[in-house]
Amino acid sequence: MKAVEWHAPRQMRLVEREKPEPKPHEALIRVESVGVCGSDMHYYLQGRIGSQQVLKEPVILGHEYSGIVEAVGAAADGGLVGKRVAVEPGIPCMKCESCTTGHYNVCKKMFFPGGPGNDGALCEYTAVHAAFCFPVPDTMTAQAAAMIEPAAVAVHAVELAQLYPGETVAILGLGSIGLLTAQVAKFSGAHLIYGTDVLPYRVEAGRRHGVDMAFDAGREDTVQRIMAETGGRGVDVAIDCTNGSDGMGLAVQVTRPAGRCVLVGISGEEWDPLPVSIARRRELTLRWCRRFCHNFARTIVLAASCKLDVISLITHSFPLERTQEAFDLVAENRDNVIKVSVDI
């Protein structure tokens, strides 16, 4: 089968790999669509995320994907065969304390594709634990099904925020995760959503996806603008969806006393600065979002019912053979890119 391997920063190669055989508990997926994620970009450009997740050998990237189940192992659900599925990529051990207490998303033994030592989905076929394959309605396209993974992150982020109807929210960073989070926050009862980004075209996209007041953080001071708009109070909830080290600090600074911050963005660094004196004086609740946890089924329902618009965020599509072009486009933020899909 064809696959695309990462070999070094900004070096991807189209190679031939053996087609996998499903183990007893696995499903064989003919991959149809793979989304390019911000965490993929850290690997693509730097070969690492922090000091713990470092690529030391060629690996297939990609973890946002969908496909058709072509076969299953003897212990897997045969009813999956022939169905299009959205795949929850992280496979926990289901035995440790985190897994048995309902927090499988922080399992220390989790297999996560598209990272050090674990091949991902930028290939024609992959085998994955069948219990993490979620059938989607016949009306849902492969591209939309691949978007369930980032959309589930947004659902989990708003869940962690414990958002109450009528509250105000700031979304910092209006890439695909930020735009999905804004939508979820809006239909979850947010009264007013502020959104910021340093790219003007993403600011405009925010206005189309649930953000009531979007502005260019490259031209205006984020903290000053939000505090001015809220009369110095700050927002009830701030959600950092940036990929920079300053996003966390900005979220703390724009949140009202006793408010909540949810930190979703991945800067790629091991340590990021945090204004602890402000967070302490305001007695803020800070919660980090680790992907998702029991969110896939509900996210599929939201996307299938068009409550959550996932498909309009896909601005570009490339075939597998042009994967490096896809990654370069995202890395350089060219052509008003929001979300890139590699379609196989």
Task: Describe this structure in a few short sentences.
With 344 residues, this protein is of the alpha/beta class.
Explain this structure.
The chain is of the alpha/beta class and 344 residues long. It has two domains: 2-147 and 310-343, Quinone Oxidoreductase, Chain A, domain 1; 153-288, Rossmann fold (3-Layer(aba) Sandwich), CATH 3.40.50. 27% of the residues lie in helices and 27% in strands. It contains eleven helices and 17 strands. It has helices at residues 38-46, 97-100, 142-146, 148-161, 176-187, 200-208, 222-229, 247-253, 276-281, 296-304, 323-332; strands at 2-8, 11-16, 26-35, 48-49, 53-54, 64-72, 84-87, 125-129, 133-135, 168-172, 192-197, 213-216, 235-240, 255-263, 285-288, 314-319, 339-343. The strands form four sheets. Strands 3, 6, 7, 8, 9, 16 and 17 form a seven-stranded mixed beta sheet that branches. Strand 14 (255-263), helix 9 and strand 15 (285-288) form a beta-alpha-beta unit. Helix 4 (148-161) packs across helix 5 (176-187) and helix 4 crosses helix 10. The relative contact order is 0.16. The model has no long low-confidence stretch (mean pLDDT 97).
By secondary-structure content and strand pairing, the structural class works out as alpha/beta
What would you call the shape? globular
Radius of gyration, Cα only, in angstroms?
20 Å
Q: Judging by the overall fold, what is the CATH architecture of the largest domain?
A: Alpha-Beta Complex
What is the straight-line distance between the termini?
12 Å
Largest sheet: 7 strands, mixed
Domain count, please report it.
2
What fraction strand? Answer: 25-35%
Average predicted local confidence, pLDDT: 97
Q: What is the tally of beta strands?
A: 17
The helix-strand sequence is EEEHEEEEHEEHHEHEHEHEHEHEHEHE
Low-confidence stretches: none
